[in-house]
Amino acid sequence: MQHKIPLSESHINIDLKTSFSSIDIDVVAEFEKSLEKYYDYKKSVLAVNSGTSAIHLALILSGVEKGDEVLCQSLTYVATINPIIYQNATPIFIDSEQDTWNMCPIQLERAIKDRILKGKKPKAIVVVHLYGMPAKIDEIVAISRKYNIILIEDAAEALGAEYKGKKCGAFGDFGILSFNNNKIVSTLGGGALICNTEIEKEKAFFYATQAKENERHYEHKVIGYNYRMNSLGALIGIAQLKKLKTYLKKRRIINDFYKESFKNFSGVFFLKEHSASIVSNHWLSCILLEVEEVAVTKHKLLDVLKKNNIEIRFFWKPMHLQPVFKEYPYYGGEIAENLFQKGICLPSGSTLLKNDLIRISECIKKFL
Ligand SMILES: *Cc1c(COP(=O)(O)O)cnc(C)c1O
Q1: CA nearest ligand 1 atom 13, residue
Q2: Which atom of ligand 1 is nearest to 157's Cα?
Q3: CA distances (Å), 176 to each of 3, 24, 50, 308, in order?
Q4: pLDDT tens digits, residue range 65-77?
């Protein structure tokens, strides 16, 4: 059996000569500084234990509470939605559009107008840059301003992606990043909340550390969470972030390889950056299978690759089609659903070697 090719593996570098105490928070602060540097010191960043907790904190800081409505992209990982439920709020799902596979601005505005007509203005919008491809953020920012609704940017998959020279994660009232095991930069579990002001960061810190009031004894007036990043994760993050450019280059090379490799296959469609000022980080290289009986073909392909010890993944199943969320409203058509039917994520980790890529593409070509 040939060695296993995982979907998305990232490098882990750690300087083991460094030592620090378990209550030393300096490394966490240093990691936050390096993230703030990444955002040209225009943001205040709080490092937390997952991207999911960062979204939860963003919702809390946005004032989302019981009964509030939150507009969110349907085609995403469940981590985007779960924190809305933690707040006892209602997700309102929005379809994707074809150019970026992300939230459709037209359906978003339609939903806002309809929710207002029904008597309630939504509290927040959560947009995602899926697989590292920037969403139509200019349009979405404009809508959020026009209706005065808070914008949260789920940039969990988009560290390193850019839109008109500005980094993903920097457009919203809040942004979030994830450093879980398969993201471009991993801290072996972690995330970050990107705030516009230091005051917001401090407020997020308060909630992320069990909401301790400023007293000598432990005084609590509201419910808090245990969401802080640990020092070892931060140490890994510092080392990794320094190599972000290398990792981005690697993921782009992988994407270019696949594109070149399948250029004569009409049944294989790649999403392209739809303008020169839009830069994907190519976290995952994705294809749409434009073939007949795609549902059957997709499963056969997965089986064949599994036999060859190669891991691929179907697209995220849209949230409005998930049993757990079936009671919530949805605005849109069948774009997200179609993408789910046809979409496959190919192995894209920065540890892949040229021989791995050849093995993967030969295997898929032979199957097709
Ligand atoms: C990874 C991811 C998250 C956060 O995930 P964690 O595992 O909690 O760090 C959030 N949204 C999207 C779209 C993701 O891919």
Answers
A1: 77
A2: 15
A3: 34, 24, 10, 36
A4: 999 999 999 999 9
